[in-house]
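Researcher: Here's a chain I'd like modeled. Treat it as a single chain, no partners, no ligands.
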Amino acid sequence: TKDLVFVSVGFETTAPSTCVPLQKEVPENFSIYSCHRICPPVLETILSLGESKVQGFVQPGHVAVITGLGMFNDLAAKYHLPQVVAGFEPLDLLMAAYMLCKQMKEGRAEVENEYSRLVKPEGNVIARKLMEDTFEPVDRAWRGFPVIKKSALALKEKYAYCDATKVHEDILANTPEVDAEAKGCRCGDVLRGLISSEECPMFGRGCKPTSPMGPCMVSSEGGCNIAFRFSGKR
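Model: Modeled as a single isolated chain. Structure tokens:
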């Protein structure tokens, strides 16, 4: 029987679905390789590095549907940073931009919920409980950042029998967490908000959606990929 490894990716949005199979007995040849990440630690890192000129955050509504609003409060208090949790429709984003500008004009730094039709203050309590029972936060390297403490989710010890990092430890032992970027790639600077995608010297030249050189161009959700398709600057 061949081994089946489920590579689970995504932020708090997708993590609960990874927990579901573990609520029942799983096949002996099944294991999970958790690549889940957590939003607050990387946002904290962006701000604590002191490099970024970010004045406010449009926070991801699909994450807040699971987590609720509370996890963003520390950023608002510590950095006096306006935040708006938003949906993904054009009117959602326009309203979020308006709400951010209004906060800045009035000197407020709050966590406001534009996506109230789906996001509740407490989030999805059942999904959060599943995550708490299944995962524990661990340190992990990110592209363009130092290792960020407790920024990823690993399976708890009670699930070691289906944790791919333990089941296939011999295979994964020498696998690097993050590959080196291509020479000239500035995805790290894009991700930290230091430059726009168009300011990268590879943008639209060697690096395109059909021939990506950096991670921001690979996915259709990547900042450089989106900029290439919609900004008109190539």
